[in-house]
Amino acid sequence: MHELADTVFRSVNLVDGTGSPARSADVSVVGDKIDRISAAGSLSARNVIDGTGLVLAPGFIDIHSHADMPLLVDGRAHSAVTQGITTIVPGNCGFGVAPFIGGNNLTQKEMPLGGGLELDEIGDVTTFPKYLSKLRDRGVGVNVVPLLAHGVLRSSVAGFETRHITRSELSVMVGMAEEALDAGAAGLSSGLEYAPGIAATTEELAAVTAPVGARGLLYATHCRSRGEFIVEAAAESVSIAERTGARLQMSHFLRRTTESDQSLARRALDVLRAADQRGVRTRYDVFPFEYGPSPITAFVPQAFKAEAGSEFGAWLQDPAFASRIAASVEPRFVAMFEQGGAAHMYISDDGTDGRYVGQTLAGIAEGMGKPVAEAAIALLSAAGERFARVMLNERWADWTDLRDAIADPDFIIMGDGSIGSLDGPLAHRGFALSDWGYATTTLGRFVRDLKLLSLEDAVRRMTSAPADQLGLTNRGVIKEGLAADLVLFDPSTVGSDVRPDSLAHVSSGIREVLVNGIAVVRGSEVTQATPGRVGLFDVCA
Predict the structure, then answer these.
(1) How many CB atoms lie within 10 A of CB 501?
(2) Is 87 within 8 Å of 465 (Cβ atoms)?
(3) What is each CA distance from 487 to 58, 74, 508, 511, 516, in whole angstroms?
């Protein structure tokens, strides 16, 4: 005998996340669980929501997020819940908040992607358990399942030095990893095109990933190269997963626009698919935009960061130091500038008063009367200690490659963004196009308008596919007894108006969103509720 439900979604078009064909149904919720799935019009509840003509799907799971620091600032995550996202996985690309043991002429504020100056106000989050506890105490509107960031581990023992890690330093890193994983980290991420991860050897990565594999968790990597050496980078990633037993997630795995050999991407995917066929659990992901986020500090050779350490922001005020950097900008970025790439690099955060937000790097350089490399470093210099905040969105993918990946059922669809809010300290903040619209862009542009994939497959690739890869056994599918993370949307109007020069737009078509049975969006309006759970163990509970 079922008790009277708290909520019933009546006569919905049920897309359950498995990829099965949509069907008409009623779905009831009791407490934080899905209670019953029955014939349309058959269930009753205290709160009945008419779903006629609407789609009910599992809440979307963003397996690749950079919301580590913003979630501590304002956990309501309006930009996420208003597009139906109910679970976020921060800590990607080797960037994160914790654990951080200090020393090595660095501060923790430089570790999160987009900077962490707010740590002065938030307090001590130097260990991973403290980070999780702080998120729980402050409250989050979405479930948060963070990854442990390799870059934070490495910087804790060696800063931004380009040398090999010593045996004792590696032991410290492994111990930090063990503590984080035991506290509820979902796995480990690496960022091997960025400092400090770029200095890591395969052996170092395998050693730090070993406790991840021992627990059957995830190794997510922004791999060594997505250009000329993408095949070798794929092979290295596979070798780490194969040696450790970790599940492998290849982050935003498309060929760079600067690489003209189209066969490389196919050959790299062949390496990954072959690994999966021989039992190395291997997946890859993509976000549905040609433009993606990147820190301008990526232009800076690692040696300069190692030289200045925690004084990097202050040293940027020295014209001689800034000129040295501008003359030594990473060659691959110089090549992009020379090929006109700066005309497709839009500033999303200038680290100062926002005067450059929405402008292209090429336009800024023209206005300054400087070469592009000098203009880029000038932005860092102007930001000073806020240099880590200076972000741009660049044209990262060729349209044909993006279209093919979105149409490929093996690609998980994710965000690679952060979060913003409708008010408060993150009001209308935009880090990337995905912040406010990756899920709704997928449903509106790629499913409804371009018909590149079916609705059922799009939902599967944003729900059960990432849930399976993360090991979330109680989310990602609408099934009796599972967690009530749900999104109700209008398939005829769902979509997003985000653009590279205008990132913060509330998605259309999202009617209701539940996280653990609690409405975070009701009648297309945010409720301000923060019912999210934090850490792998709590989210799996």
Answers:
(1) 15
(2) no
(3) 6, 22, 13, 8, 12
Q: 518 in helix, strand or coil?
A: strand
Angle between helices 331-338 and 372-383 (to 10 degrees): 120
**Crossing angle, helix 319-326 and helix 372-383, to 10 degrees?**
140
For residue 323, which phi and psi values (nearest 5 degrees)?
-65, -40
Backbone angles phi, psi at 420, to 5 degrees: -135, 175
Name the residue type at position 516: N
pTM listed for this prediction: 0.96
Whether residue 196 has a cis bond before it, omega within 30° of 0: yes
| CA 199/CA 154 separation, integer angstroms | 9
Pick from 438, 357, 414, 416: which is nearest to 79 by CA?
Answer: 438
Contact between 443 and 491 under an 8 Å Cβ cutoff? The reply is yes
What is the C-alpha separation between 250 and 428, in angstroms, rounded?
30
Alpha-carbon dihedral of residues 242, 244, 248, 254, nearest 10 degrees?
Answer: -70
Give the contacts of 539 (CB within 8 A, at least 6 positions apart): 87, 143, 144, 145, 472, 475, 533
Instruction: Note whether 413 and 286 are within 8 A (CB).
Output: yes
DSSP assigned state of 328: T
- Give tens-digit pLDDT for 187-229: 999 999 988 999 999 999 999 999 999 999 999 999 999 888 9
Which residues, 6 or more positions from 464, have their beta carbon under 8 angstroms from its beta carbon?
17, 18, 19, 58, 476, 477
> What is the per-residue burial (b if ≥16 Cβ within 10 Å, else e) of 372-411?
bbbbbbbbbbbbebbbbbbbbbbbbbbeebbbbbbeeeeb
Q: Is 193 left (phi over 0), alpha (psi -120 to 50) or beta?
A: alpha
The beta strands (E) that lie in 168-235 are given as 187-191, 218-222
The residue type at 396: W
Three-class DSSP category at 315: helix
What are 298-349's pLDDT values in tens digits? 889 888 888 888 888 899 999 999 999 999 987 878 778 878 889 999 999 9
